[in-house]
């Protein structure tokens, strides 16, 4: 799998409250609608203009804070192709894999990328191609690969239960 | 008020339509009157489509005690800014009546309207012609006609000034 | 070679000896969900399984917005009641005077037990480590999958050992310690790790203080945080334990740690986390005098009877200068506070005391901030927009610092009013 | 020809003799707004005065916060902030923030209401202040703004209805039941634009909270105001709160013997039974017996109509007699009207007992009456509450509500289905 998209770049410790504000956690239950509030308190420009296929680039500890899965769902339903970060908070990492939203850890690629640039992620070769060079990232552990191949945790569970 | 004959479609309501049905308390925090029409009649079964489908010039037609309940002026704004030019009702509740007048928003008191609505003599979607000055209301769809009384006394003066604030300003100037 | 707490607990559950880095699949014990049980149920149904794996392992506790403020919240609660009925869920805490903030209920009702693996669809599930449990927060899909299969995967985490000695000085409490740790190692300082609290000072601490510490483990990125299941814990849980499947487990003395930190409580002083990150540490001296519009004493971090006592001591006989919202962590805390006359102290001081629940902590309920407003809070997060508006500011602090600040209408040093 | 109470009140406020039907400009004694409507008032005032306006008398303007106290939405928080800042700028000291409780009750407790006062507020139940002989009325924001210019506003001098109530309530029956009975008898527009004066030995014996209950529901019959002459303990209480001027006011307030009433009604409560307003209108009234056994999901005791200490005490008596808990699956919520009431409940030991029985106690506020606050109902749920409106969808789309007395509400909470409190009280 290989994806190419335009970069939206952010700093360190971007938390789930700015990705998907808590006040919507019980008033918005429709998945598609969640996309409307993505990054509302971080970057209103993103909220308005993000396109399907765009790629988010973050610093360390992306998605720290709450366990709310909407912080992944809201990006997924906007069609965000992947998130490249220096690191992910634990629950966010799990939630992203469970939702089938590709996430990649590569501090070098993050430093090489600026907002608006194009970036290509080649999952087969485990590399990120930027204007400043190509960077390798560690491949997913086998277990995680299985999850992603099945399209997320729920389809994975269905498959394993034979449903 | 200029004498003009208005034409539009009727949205017909029964008696005792309260302010929660006109403008639900859920949206009370709104402070911009122009944003209020989107919530009109959201909680009134059968009229949930009003906010989306009402056209500028359409009339609100109701029975007795229209606007009973809360003091919220939102319930006037949400119709005024939806472009409803006048409310026709057999009677209005007290606070609603004041709020309408205070905004220079025309209302007509139409005798027998409550029964006429119950008897189906005026129905949702009927084409109406309303002469505000003369108080003549004609249902062009079925030929029925009604008479409505405008406000009088001080209320008429306030209405003519365009609302209570404007009235008080005029009064202050003339002093 | 010795084992860490995480290696021992996960190893026992996996039925093999495990070390950090390994992935294990285990059956968790209690699985806690709050108001989000309804959306989880929606996902669960998509899997195509009819029954949850063990109804008695599920615990539902309504707390995020109770009683329901809007019909959407009400619909959500109603769905949960229907699931409870349909699936025969025994442990359900509805909008009644038995409830409260989910993590508080889990601890005071005997669900949080030593050696149990527990998950919750809330990030502060790590609180139960105060009772020696291995507990961690997960997302909604993962919870749905767990209900269906009774299984969850974990990468056995590396561990961080934090050893604490000494005694708090007057006006200083566990919240100040954890804010100091967050400031030192930053919000990702313990990413993916299991934090173990060791040392004589931890043994001295009340269970409430340990809960405050473990609760905020997530704020430094940890998978879980845990204190030793000592006699204090055992005395507390034995009469109330909801299962006898627990086992007091602790790390070996020669366990291997990825990182070790040492703190002396005597060095800790009153402090805050400045907007907009939990690791934005400042000593009280640096921020003293900052004007505030609201003070909030509540949340799963600091709203237990011990916290209320500390705040009431400061507020007794005085009047607050800003609106001050007090939300006890549970109804049993509320009732205890009432018995001790603390509710009267708060009301006489001009505080609003609301029914137990999460309140304004995540921007859902009682006490949302307006643009440009500043709040000092005993909760656990000060992220931008967390309490409602992105143009507002939140300072995190201890109950004593919050109470002292409420009195003056500006951030204040509790040592000056004690 | 004699004058009614409202004619005398308006005469004082207008400074001249007045006739029924006349439009009259009156001086305001107090012009108040809540966190509902208050921000609209402030923004409108600032707009029409180009931010240069000064309210006529900062001591006669008050703000109360009870719509969402504390707020749970950014919009309401912002509205509250707008009000606080305006009050500061204008030197308005009477700001009763989120820690106080329901507006009218807070004004009363703070001695800001005297018999004969003319008071405006952005709350349709302002007229419950008629319980102490004040003419208070709910209005929209424009009326409030207009009154802030020169402290005046206009009223039509209304006709007056006279209601005389005699007899003693049987055990389990109270003022709320009488009121419900009256609403059922007269209908939603039964007091259309009228002032109503209440007389008779039942009224003379009644407590302040009973009078408040009675006058609060005048709105549900589209009345302008319900008025009761303060006497006995109510008068003592008022003097204690609002000072000796109360006594002077009372002297000039009583209706003349030959006052003219447009309608006179008499009720006797000796044989009155517990009553309830069934879904979905206050005037859809039945005896509790007739609907007994109907399932109820949530019970709420509170609101400006029935949230005072006596109301909560009445509910407590039912709980005590039942010696039981709320029914399994039932949510029971009590919201005291004010902080003072909450403290009284704490002192009396009620809160502990209610909590032990499974009832939730919230902070003083309008609670579910304003929706967007404690106690919204999901579709299909049935509630019973001591509030004053049960219009369809008011507390949640697709839900339905019965209105009843605190005793009936508590009995229903205990049994999990609509219950006549006499079944418990014996």
Report what the structure shows:
The complex is a heterotetramer of chains A (163), B (175), C (418) and D (426). Chain B is of the alpha/beta class. Helices cover 29% and strands 19% of the residues of chain B. In chain B, strand 6 and strand 7 form a beta hairpin. In chain B, helix 6 crosses helix 7 (164-174). By secondary structure, chain C is of the alpha/beta class. Chain C has 2 domains: 5-242 and 259-263, Aconitase, domain 3, CATH 3.30.499.10; 271-416, Aconitase, domain 3 (2-Layer Sandwich), CATH 3.30.499. Chain C has 14 helices and 18 strands. In chain C, strands 4-3-2-5-6 form a 5-stranded parallel beta sheet, with helices on both faces. In chain C, strands 16-15-14-17-18 form a 5-stranded parallel beta sheet, covered by helices on one side. The longest helix of chain C is centred in the first third of the chain and has 17 residues, at 71-87. The mean pLDDT of chain C is 96. With 426 residues, chain D is α/β, with parallel strands linked by helices. Chain D has 2 domains: 9-267, 2-Layer Sandwich (Aconitase, domain 3); 276-425, Aconitase, domain 3 (2-Layer Sandwich). In chain D, helix 2 packs across helix 5 (141-150), helix 6 packs parallel to helix 8 (208-216) and helix 13 packs parallel to helix 16 (406-415). Chain D starts with a helix and ends with a helix. The chains are: A alpha/beta (163), B alpha/beta (175), C alpha/beta (418), D alpha/beta (426). Chains in contact: A-C, B-D, C-D. At the C-D interface, helix 3, strand 15, helix 12, helix 13 and strand 16 of C face helix 3, strand 15, helix 14, helix 15 and strand 16 of D.
What is this structure, in a nutshell?
The complex is a heterotetramer of chains A (163), B (175), C (418) and D (426). By secondary structure, chain A is an alpha/beta fold. Chain A contains eight helices and seven strands.
Number of domains of chain C: 2
The most extensive contact between chains is: C-D, 52 and 52 residues
How many strands of chain A? 7
Q: Tell me the major beta sheet of chain C.
A: 5 strands, parallel
With strands numbered from the N-terminus, the spatial order across the biggest sheet of chain A is: 4-3-2-1-5-6-7
Share of β-strand residues of chain A? 15-25%
Please state how the strands of the largest beta sheet of chain C are arranged side by side.
4-3-2-5-6
Structural category of chain C: alpha/beta
How many alpha or pi helices of chain C?
Answer: 14
CATH homolog superfamily of the largest domain in chain C? Aconitase, domain 3
Classify the fold: give the CATH topology of the largest domain in chain C: Aconitase, domain 3
Question: Beta fraction of the residues of chain C?
Answer: 15-25%
